[in-house]
Design goal:
With 293 residues, the protein is α/β, with parallel strands linked by helices. The chain contains nine helices and eleven strands. Helix 1 runs parallel beside helix 9 (279-289) and helix 2 runs parallel beside helix 3 (98-111).
Length: 293
């Protein structure tokens, strides 16, 4: 099982471009596989939408939170590294134009030498959709079409796609990605709908370890994959799991790593709050607790 880490950048003045590069080089040097990068275009002081990963539905961040665009962060970090991979965790694909995103991602595929994976989801906040001028309704269908349209644009010389939300004919998008078929598209989300989308359209699935019974939760994913003639152990299905951490408790981290490995997880993404000061020491302790040293 591979071990990766989530990083947050732009949420304070000190977590700038220089910090991105230093952080990425440290993560790579410690043996983590990937750097996972979250995405939201805007935040709000309060939400009517329910955040799915807290008991009360309230987001667990402050009202003035900010983060850089993950595609730009991946490019900056890739320039400072040579083996570290990058994944959006996750990009809210349906809030962006499909073809524009296809071009940006294929460019990133080239500029990272194929070290980028596109984690996508439909989001949970109607407020963010409204601010970006995108209809909240039918976002699931929109996401399906966007995923299909990206692959069409990446693979067809004269790309044509006809859908309700995406429509183009004889579109020429060059250069093609250096990754055959384009970067892997990993479906994020813990709902049944997200799992079914991963089974139908995904190169993998990226869930969040926020459930008290993770075995039962992943068993549901396995059943859905089996219904689509796929399996968690398939070589062509990348099984990722994010693990939120309040801090580094070596015994707890070690235990969680062992459980994830026993469940067949391909890549465990550790998501602790990493301080700006002494971040290298903190990441070193995390790597040691996860068994990377």
């Amino acid at each position: 099982m591979e071990i990766s880490v989530a990083g947050f950048f732009g949420n304070s003045p000190r977590r700038d471009l220089s910090f991105v590069r230093d952080f990425a080089q440290t993560v790579e040097g410690l043996g983590f596989r990937s750097l996972a990068l979250p995405e939201h275009v805007v935040f709000f002081p309060s939400y009517e939408s329910d955040y799915p990963y807290t008991d009360d539905g309230e987001p667990n961040w402050g009202p003035d939170t900010g983060i850089f665009d993950p595609l730009f962060v991946a490019q900056a970090a890739a320039h400072a590294t040579s083996t570290l991979r990058f994944i959006t965790g996750v990009l809210i694909l349906t809030q962006r134009p499909a073809l524009l995103t296809a071009k940006e991602v294929l460019t990133l595929d080239h500029f990272t030498d194929g070290r980028f994976e596109l984690g996508v989801g439909s989001g949970w906040s109607w407020e963010e959709y409204a601010a970006l001028g995108v209809d909240w309704a039918k976002r699931g269908q929109r996401l399906d079409e966007y995923i299909e349209a990206l692959r069409v644009a990446w693979t067809q010389e004269r790309a044509t796609y006809h859908g309700e939300f995406v429509h183009f004919e004889n579109a020429v998008m060059n250069p093609k990605p250096i990754t055959p078929g384009g970067p892997p598209i990993i479906i994020g989300g813990d709902s049944g709908a997200a799992m079914r989308r991963a089974a139908r359209l995904g190169d993998g699935w990226y869930g969040w370890w926020a459930q008290p019974d993770i075995g039962a939760h992943l068993g549901k994913l396995g059943e859905i994959l089996n219904a689509h003639d796929r399996d968690l152990s398939d070589d062509d299905f990348d099984f990722k799991l994010g693990l939120p951490l309040a801090g580094i408790d070596p015994g707890k981290v070690e235990s969680k790593v062992e459980i994830a490995a026993s469940l067949g997880v391909d890549e465990l993404v550790l998501a602790p709050p990493v301080p700006t000061r002494d971040f290298a020491q903190y990441l070193g302790a995390l790597a040691s607790a996860a068994g990377l040293d």
